[in-house]
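A reminder from the course coordinator: this example appears on the midterm review sheet, so study it carefully.

Given structure:
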């Protein structure tokens, strides 16, 4: 296996150390570029390969989160004479960006959907020509920080916005220490500042709603049209959904992008740590009220109410904090219930 060829895809000592146990057994490694329903496209030291999961892998991995995701490094056996391989193992992830699956509430299951694996930064993208959703940005920030990946807020389409500085100031009220960059991919302004995040073959995940300009920006960074984009009329209005799947895209100057489809729902998978970090300005007042059981409604001496009156944060931000807090609590309760039911099933089997 040519390790030098793999470094362009993000291979480093973290993965090389894990791979030592497999290198003597005829295995090689590849990085998942595209995840299809029944197979995967991999980047390997000998180019692109199509791969399937081995029967042993299926047997050992029942949980959705255990299967390869875009950005994962996998241990494979190449099929001689073909551009195909069999996936045997997934190497431990350096990082991930995940959310709760948006369609599994009815049966009581709480599954994790991994949107991108082994990423160094997350670009949270929001368009300046549409109604900017501050609450959605807060949600993405919470997810990014919970997953311990550095977020960067990217405000796109500055060419269509007459009050860019005002909008940036608005985002700063919720961004805290997160860097904010404003750009126009069409005008190619603000692009150079992005390139530093890819230095050293780093991987950046792009997230955001449909129409914010992810595909246009990717084409701009690649220097060619590698992604379908909407026409200029849609660009000026809302744009449209052009990305239908997650994909790892290599940049000509080094580094890679994981593009994700625009998401209607961004539901938290976990988030207690990310919530505290995203809402530091609110949480520092928790416990400072006159009464220990203060509900922050009509009680006198409420530190939260006073902070809102003093302009430390607005009431809408506080209500979003409570909403996310309830969502995380709901997830934790569901997870605990799921674990209890699994334990009961295990003991029933033992008794039989």
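Designed residues:
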């Amino acid at each position: 296996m040519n390790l030098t060829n793999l470094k362009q895809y993000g291979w480093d000592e973290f993965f090389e150390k894990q791979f030592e146990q497999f290198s003597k057994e005829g295995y090689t490694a590849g990085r998942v570029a595209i995840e299809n329903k029944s197979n995967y496209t991999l980047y390997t030291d000998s180019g692109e390969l199509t791969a399937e999961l081995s029967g042993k892998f299926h047997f050992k991995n029942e949980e959705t989160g255990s299967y390869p995701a875009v950005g994962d490094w996998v241990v494979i056996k190449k099929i001689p004479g073909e551009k195909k391989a069999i996936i045997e193992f997934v190497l431990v992830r350096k990082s991930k960006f995940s959310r709760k699956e948006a369609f599994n509430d009815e049966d009581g299951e709480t599954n994790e959907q991994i949107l991108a694996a082994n990423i160094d930064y997350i670009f949270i993208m929001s368009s300046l020509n549409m109604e900017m959703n501050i609450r959605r940005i807060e949600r993405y920030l919470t997810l990014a920080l919970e997953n311990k990946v550095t977020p960067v807020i990217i405000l796109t389409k500055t060419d269509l916005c007459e009050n860019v500085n005002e909008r940036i100031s608005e985002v700063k009220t919720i961004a805290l220490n997160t860097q904010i960059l404003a750009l126009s991919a069409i005008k190619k302004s603000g692009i150079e500042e992005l390139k530093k995040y890819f230095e050293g073959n780093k991987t950046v995940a792009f997230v955001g709603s449909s129409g914010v300009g992810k595909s246009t920006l990717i084409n701009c960074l690649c220097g060619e049209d590698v992604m379908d984009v909407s026409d200029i009329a849609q660009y000026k209005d809302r744009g449209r959904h052009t990305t239908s799947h997650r994909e790892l895209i290599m940049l000509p100057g080094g580094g890679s992008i994981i593009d994700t489809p625009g998401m209607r729902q961004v539901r938290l998978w976990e988030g207690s740590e990310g919530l505290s970090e995203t809402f530091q300005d609110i949480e520092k007042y928790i416990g400072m009220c006159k009464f220990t059981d203060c509900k922050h409604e009509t009680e006198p001496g409420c530190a939260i109410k006073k902070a809102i009156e003093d302009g430390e944060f607005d009431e809408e931000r506080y209500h979003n904090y409570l909403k996310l807090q309830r969502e995380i609590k709901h997830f934790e309760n569901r997870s605990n219930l799921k674990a209890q039911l699994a334990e009961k099933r295990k003991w029933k089997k033992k008794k039989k």
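Confidence is low (pLDDT under 50) at residues 102-106, 239-244. The first helix runs from residue 3 to 7.
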